[in-house]
Amino acid sequence: MFLIIFSVISLVIAGILFGISQRFKYFSKQGIPGPKPKFFFGHTKESYLGKKNIIYEIDDVYRYSRGKYPFVGFYASLKPYFLVIDPELLKKILITDFKVFRNNDFSKMVSKRRDPILALNPFFMVDDFWKEKRAEVTPALTKNKLKLIYPIAIDTASKLIAHVDEKLTKPYDIKELCSRYTCDLISSSLFNVDAHCLTSDNPEIYDHSKKIMDGIIAAYSKSCPSQMFPKESAAFFKRLTFDAIRHRNEMSFKPDDLLNHIMMTQQKKIFSEDDLMGQVWTIFMDAYETAGLALQYTLYELARNHKAQDKLRDEIMKNLDDDGKHITYETIMELEYLNQVFYEALRLHSPITYTTRVCAENFEIDGAKGHKYQMKKGDVALIPFYSIHRDPDHYPHPESFEPERFDASNGGVKAFTDRCVLMPFGAGGRICIGVKLANVMIKTAVVEILKNYRISVDESVPYNLEIGVKEFLNVVTNTLLINFQRL
Q1: Among 45, 40, 47, 46, CA closest to 23
Q2: Separation of alpha carbons 53 and 50, rounded Å
């Protein structure tokens, strides 16, 4: 009996091992190049064992393959991906043939049963559901609505300055500062409430926002969907939203702002509560977390590079309005060097380090030396923003902060985005919905800070930053301490 049981177990184990070995032949059977994967771990042993973020292992394979192949086979543990390197192929996937690749692979992170609100965020949606939800949110962020947010941004930035003035005796953690600023600003813009993020030590909105982001990070680190929204935080934001709607309905004058857009959409579409909250949290999350990260890295690079900081401050001071206090909305959106600084900081520190696209039908792609390959329906393309933005073929001295590389003489930012070598907010049909809102929030804060302070990186901060092992977004383990010196 023992021999029979042992034989059965041995056969089962052998079958499993054989199945795994066959998984790792997915690309080699098709003649697709790529470094040899390690058994079970593929190309992601270090991240699987919790030693480094997966983007660094993606980057290792990218560097190995750069200049040799337009794409290679990459295994995240047992899952195969087409790691895309060639900008022309990137452009096909993200823009030209977007209809074939309109879905990403992140929808599997979210449980519709456990997180019905987050499941209605377009980032996690697929097919026509994604298209419909994105179309509902996009009109909330038109130029006219952003102009209405700009005075709120200036007011919030003034609170930020007052907050920093209280902390001038020691270095300040700008992760904390930037997330408090963006949380305060989007709360005022979306709910018409003062979140007190810059005037209170433990503001309720800020605490619940952090709990939700912690839940997203925890879910990302697991292999199966788990609840991201703590129940108490979901209930808090639902109560906050409907209190804001109730108050707005009592007003005689209703401004055409973010909240009004959501209310009008609810009336037209006959939203459920979850539909409405999905739209609210889509705007809130993009503004709070994505813009917060983008702002902290913009300030970090300016604090690290004083020549760029002085040049930008000079541009700002020359463009102040007649009272010498602020810059108009139209002018701040047109400041050339501010825009160059913004995109150079995000080239080095994209909020999302990579994305994926799922192939919806068989699709022929060009390989090296004229070879043709076919991506099959269900195959997944992996697009490494982090690696593309640091590729010396696209950017001389790629690790250096050089905003001038986006000068008009080089075609400006557009020349790089058109070639699909600059994608800090993604590209094509699934580009981040909040990119324009982020521009307003970040540039307003940068202008107000540089008007008032000279900033420098504290000597305790290492030069090379390290993205956290389990982080889904570009969140570093280092505490980014900045010194603020009043001008």
Answers
A1: 40
A2: 8
